[in-house]
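Anyone up for a design puzzle?
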């Protein structure tokens, strides 16, 4: 068992966890734990213009902008079909914070991880929360590696930040119950982009709403948001059934035209994320 001491322990090394660690490392000793050895493909690719203020404050913006074309590309605006067949365009040409950045989410998380490590954050990747107790005004947290060694780190921390997202690993380990307000699900695929118009698209439908954005490597994300009881489960089970449902929306159908004739240079991803 490895015993360690830190001031702030962060559970979860995604965007929120890394940003928190980077913002705190100048003043505190910070340890960051994540169960994944490396980031994986996931949805969440649009970085709002105002977020650039935070990135600049944390000295992250220049490093990000140096990787335009690979880590992100500029998005000049959104075309919206909401309650009407007529398109409504919201552009960012006059936004004082600039354009939306459409990210390669996996690459962006890798960039944040490397920056956190470079700035002195003690990072434990491929490591899961095992147990925690609060004794003598200190958190006693045990984490365990996911590899064959199953090495246990016993970490004493003044504060713990749960940045593990909707899984809420630390909060649930304390018996804190999740309050469910809505049974929203998000289902998405990544496909080759075949359009020259790279603005994002949002379109309302009878049972939810569709969203699409173009990300680096000329990939297109297509996502559908709905309540789990509004759409038949068989329509969201496979990539083929999901794309068939997508084609029922005129705005999304137009974006998908030509896709079937294009060989897929990468794996198509389908994710259904019901509430726990």
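Challenge accepted. My sequence:
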């Amino acid at each position: 068992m490895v015993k360690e001491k830190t001031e702030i322990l962060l559970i979860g090394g995604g965007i929120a966890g890394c940003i928190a660690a980077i913002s705190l490392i100048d003043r505190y000793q910070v340890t960051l734990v994540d169960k994944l050895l490396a980031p994986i493909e996931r949805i969440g690719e649009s970085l709002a213009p105002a977020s650039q203020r935070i990135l600049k404050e944390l000295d992250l913006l220049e490093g990000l902008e140096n990787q335009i074309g690979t880590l992100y590309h500029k998005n000049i605006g959104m075309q919206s079909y909401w309650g009407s067949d007529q398109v409504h365009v919201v552009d960012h040409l006059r936004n004082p914070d600039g354009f939306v950045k459409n990210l390669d989410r996996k690459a962006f998380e890798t960039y944040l991880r490397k920056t956190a490590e470079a700035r002195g954050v003690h990072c434990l990747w491929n490591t899961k929360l095992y147990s925690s107790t609060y004794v003598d005004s200190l958190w006693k947290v045990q984490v365990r590696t996911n590899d064959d060694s199953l090495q246990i780190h016993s970490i004493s921390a003044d504060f713990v930040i749960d940045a593990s997202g909707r899984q809420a690993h630390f909060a649930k380990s304390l018996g804190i119950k999740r309050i469910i307000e809505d049974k929203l699900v998000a289902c998405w695929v990544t496909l080759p982009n075949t359009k020259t118009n790279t603005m994002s698209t949002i379109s309302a439908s009878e049972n939810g709403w569709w969203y699409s954005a173009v990300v680096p490597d000329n990939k297109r994300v297509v996502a559908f948001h709905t309540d789990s009881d509004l759409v038949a489960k068989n329509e969201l089970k496979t990539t083929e059934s999901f794309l068939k449902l997508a084609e029922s929306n005129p705005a999304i159908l137009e974006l998908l035209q030509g896709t079937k004739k294009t060989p897929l240079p990468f794996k198509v991803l389908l994710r259904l994320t019901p509430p726990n």
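A detail worth pointing out: The helical segments are 15-24, 51-57, 61-65, 105-118, 169-173, 239-246, 250-256.
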